């Protein structure tokens, strides 16, 4: 049951596009579409991964955000140097809530900010000497770190510093991996290129480290859990399910992960990939080089979890398949109780999503379990293959918007009037002031985990808490409310 | 000469993946598919054609290769 008919949705898109100058309108028109489950390939209806139109308010990040913030940042026992001016590192510090265990500043460095703090003289004379000095200081102050990654900020690429040679020299001196990343923010159109650069760096600088080392004792049930960044504890909620069904998780990428887990991944039997967008490059590489098959799975909502657990189990023997059934059977009564409790309060509500990575498609199942419907979905930095996967999960007549601008999203929300909007912090207060309940779906609005069975319980509670919050009736001043009621009478 | 990855799908068909262009398409026809000769002209589902230097034996898939756009 969709709120909008196809023609209505198409008319809405045309209406929203009208304010743009002709060139921008033509460009933006390609990024907005109405989903049609009959379309085989998304590229026939939507264009993605293109440069944003100058002058619009885009919500995208940069390549540094994709590399340091997403892929490398959560690796807890390495020091990630934000190489360049101080701001990029400081303003992105600890904002993503990648939980980890360990003692921060002793053997874990996840929430700390290490930066070379470029000054004018470093731009003029180059920052390589400073970088060497910085690495020496890190070694003195934090001797228990297991490696260093150098995350370039824009100026490093502009002035042409040779961070690779510093890395090689220091790696030899320290006898620890030192990984240079050319993830300057100006590269590419969004954070997506940062993911790719980070993946390539892992491929070139980390994965081959243990190629000749056969000392690791593997079992037939070894899996690598990749593309889960442990936001609010997501990876932990996923990992326990896999372990409960009898698998052994040998690597967790990269939420609560370590450098040795990165190096161990090639010893796994299967790569389980949650966030396709940010780690598919490595999954493909490991399939080619090490012959490890990879599989995408979805741990949002009991329906999808059960489906994914069975799909994972099908790759293994009967023991694991039995384990999967046992896990599903164990949690089903619990999940039914949650659905029974929240579904009546949430049934029929409409959701609009504008997030990144995997969420616009992966959470659809979880909302459906609660009787809610996704009426609009969009990605910040998706590529065609993401939309290929998305249109299969969405109903007829759902709005699709790629790299949506601030103006467009506001207009869509005003017209569709969904019961809930899920997007980032920059959108949160706009929509709350419009009187629409909002969840910050990048970091689960400081809640979580949302993955796995444990996560679904929290997800359902959070959605109910937001949607049925009594504050939404209090947006109108009491005297205005009385006047409106009198007028109506 | 894009660098591409050729892979087998679950259904048994072949796909061609061009990372730079973010394109993943089914290969609908390949000139030489025999065990002793593999490669040649490829046609994708979207109609585009590529040329792959024929190999003497079918390789282990997936594999990254250089192909020529036709």
Automatic annotation (TrEMBL), chain B:
InterPro entries: NifT (IPR009727), NifT/FixU_barrel-like_dom_sf (IPR024044)
GO terms, biological process: nitrogen fixation
The protein's name in its UniProt record: Nitrogen fixation protein NifT
